[in-house]
Amino acid sequence: MSLSSTTLPAITQSPRVGEERDGEVKEPESQIKHLEISTKDPIFYRRDSPYAISDPKHVYVSKYDAVAHHAQTKEEMKHLAQEKWVNAMAVKKMAMWMRKRLRERTRLKPVVKNLKSLKEPKEISKWEGQRSYLCDRCMLPCPGADVTCEHCNIVLHESCLTEEELREYRCGVVDTEPEPEHAPFLGGSPPSAGSSSRSLGSSSRSLNNFVGGGGGRRRTSSPTQQRLPEKQLQTYTCGFCKQDTEADQHWFTAEKKRLWEAEHHQINAALIGRVLRGFLSRFRYKRYQRAVVRFQAMLRRYIERRKFKAYRRQMKRPMIVNVLAASDMPVANRDNASADPYVIVTVHDSMHREQTLRFDTSVKQKTLDCEWEPQNFLIPGVSGNSVLVFTVVDEEEMRDQFLGQCAVPLTNGDLWLHGGKFDVDLEDLQYIVRTHNKQEADIAYEKITPAGWLTVEIKPLCSLHSVCGPIEGPHIDVLSTITKTSIGAVQNISKVSQKNSYWGVIHDGKASFYRRFGDRTPKVVVPLSGLQVSKVKSTGRHKSPHESSKPSHIPPSTSARAATRSDRLRRSSQLATETQHKKEFSLKNVDVSSSNRQKYVFEAPTVNDSRHWYEVVDYWIQKHKQIKRMRSRSRSRAYRDSVGTVSERGYRDSMGSVKSPDRSKSRSPSPTRGSISP
Questions:
Q1: Which residues form a coiled coil (predicted)?
Q2: In this structure, what are the phi and psi dihedrals at residue 460, rounded to the nearest 5 degrees?
Q3: Using an 8 Å Cβ cutoff, are 476 and 523 in contact?
Q4: pTM score
Q5: Separation between Cα atoms, residue 587 and residue 530, nearest integer Å
Q6: Are 457 and 343 in contact (CB under 8 A)?
Q7: Is residue 407 within 8 Å of 389, Cβ to Cβ?
């Protein structure tokens, strides 16, 4: 293949060199045919075209003249062939090496995730194919293949190895003991003195050139070394294979270190994460625990507050109700276009819708807008579930007429606790009005349409300074004598020893006692000023006379069960007696001028109720004493002021009536400042 075929692929083969006939060089038919075919293009045969080839000396024709193009000598062709052969062999060797690398070692490193999956790099497989013809160092033919790489097709001359490589390759060579000075050498007679230095100097060279390589020279070994058999020589590994092995080992070491660091980093991160997660978990748990405890406390507080409010609403407390005004009421009397209104205040139980109390205001004559003075209707006991009903009625001779009704439930807000003053509209009938005997009142409900509004005031009394509830005490007739200075010579003995149950209310320093709950007016009203309250102490009268003299130990004849039962009964009776005394408190008149020294004992249903009654009574008694002391102090202060004013005025009047001497004449002149009197 000629160079023209490689450089100009569009043109066919050039004529052979030296093809001449009669001293003229003839163009081959293929060339002429090619030119004829190529000149069929319009730009080559047009006369006006600069590329016309009618002239044989045209640039296009002379450029591709085959004879001038291939005028090379034989020596030049040999040099080109040798260079081309060397290049081809080098390319071939490189291609083989690359194919081997690609086939065996050239691949991506495996992705290793942990140390367990990391494996040491495999050893390079031994080469079993055809060896190279050229030495890898000097690029000269090495037909003997002195040194071959164990893992690839590379061959080397032994003389091309370095000292380190040769020492490594000849690690199987051993040093023998030196022969005597006149001992015969391996090659013949002993050398002379002059030749000994040359032989010693050539030993180092023979170490580097053990076997004749390039050049065909053969070298002998040193006199102190002996070559071992072939099986004891170390295998040789070329630099490329060493580099691959070292790269793999370096990668393995680096990957092992990286994985070790990554694993320890992951372990440390996991430990730190566990610590942080534990801390966060504990922190969140504590926070959630505090939140749950707080929420539970809030919920318990809410529930307990509701329970307490429900309990408080079930309790009865005294309350004062006032009807202040009524406005825009409907007309009841057509003759004078007015009405005679009055208001009926009733208390209803919201659970059973029963009327428990009733109060009536005074009647206002011939008016549609009226006002009342504060009546201070005392409700002796009302719970928080009750309803106050205000019914406006027109007074008539035959039958009263219904003008309107409004209901105020005490469950709305804190009305039962704090009360207030407000206006309410009159609406239709909701609750039937009854008399004090629980009979339906005689009122006409059909004639008039309700209209207008009422102004009412509700004042609940403080539970710390007021109390109401059932209580047992002396007979109601005997109780009326508590404030009398003398109870009389004769009293009904049966009433003195008798105990009655009634409804009591303490407020504003007075104790009001009703025969039953629902009465409008109390039967007895006792002012607490001048009285003394005390708790009833256990006197031990419940014990038998000989109980204190009984032995405390159990007789041997009595069984343990009978003794335990009797002891339990005795303790329960004693506890009941002590509890009964804890429920009691007494009132006594402490007026010095009074001859009534009788003690009036009261008993509450429970110990807490008795304590509450005692505290409220003691509060009002102490307050009355304090007011009395303040009044006495103010009276004494006023008396002293009045006495001092009168005495000063009398002294001035008495001094004015006596003629006083003229002191201005007898008064001597006062000495001047700085002078000394005799």
A1: none
A2: -70, 140
A3: yes
A4: 0.51
A5: 10
A6: no
A7: yes
pLDDT tens, residue by residue, 146-169: 788 888 888 888 888 888 888 877
CA distance 421 to 324: 9
Neighbouring residues of 20: CB distance < 8 A, sequence distance ≥ 6? 26
The Cα 221–Cα 187 span in angstroms is: 11
Strand partners, 260: none
Please compute Rg for the chain using Cα positions. 70
396 — phi, psi (to 5°)?
-130, 160
Is the pLDDT at 671 greater than 60? The verdict is no
Length of the chain: 678
| Domains defined for the chain, CATH in brackets | 3-71 (no CATH), 112-177+201-314 (no CATH), 317-460 (2.60.40.150), 462-486+494-538+577-639 (2.30.29.30)
Secondary structure class of 638 (helix, strand, coil): helix
Distances in Å between the alpha carbon of 508 and those of 5, 182, 467, 619?
A: 138, 152, 11, 11
Interatomic CA distance for residues 319 and 480, integer angstroms:
24
How far apart, in whole angstroms, are the C-alpha atoms of residue 569 and residue 612? Answer: 30
Alpha-carbon span 352 to 595, nearest angstrom:
49
* Cα(307)–Cα(314) distance, integer angstroms: 10
Query: With pLDDT > 90 as the criterion, what percentage of the chain qualifies?
Result: 14
Pairing of strands 400-409, 443-444: parallel
Which has the closest alpha carbon to 315: 619, 620, 618, 612? 612
Distances (CA, A) of 390 to 60, 74, 319, 320, 631: 135, 146, 15, 14, 41
Q: How far apart are CA 522 and CA 602, in angstroms?
A: 17
* Dihedral of alpha carbons 653, 659, 665, 670, sign: negative
Task: Please count the helices (runs of H) and the strands (runs of E) in the chain.
Answer: 15, 23
Is pLDDT at 204 greater than 60 in this prediction? Answer: no
* DSSP string for residues in 346-378: EEEETTTTEEEEEEE-PPPPS-SSEE-----EE
* Residue 660, CA atoms < 13 Å, CB-side half-sphere: 10
Output the DSSP codes for 58-102.
-HHHHHT-HHHHT---HHHHHHHHHHHHHHHHHHHHHHHHHHHII
Sign (positive or negative) of CA dihedral 353, 358, 362, 366: positive
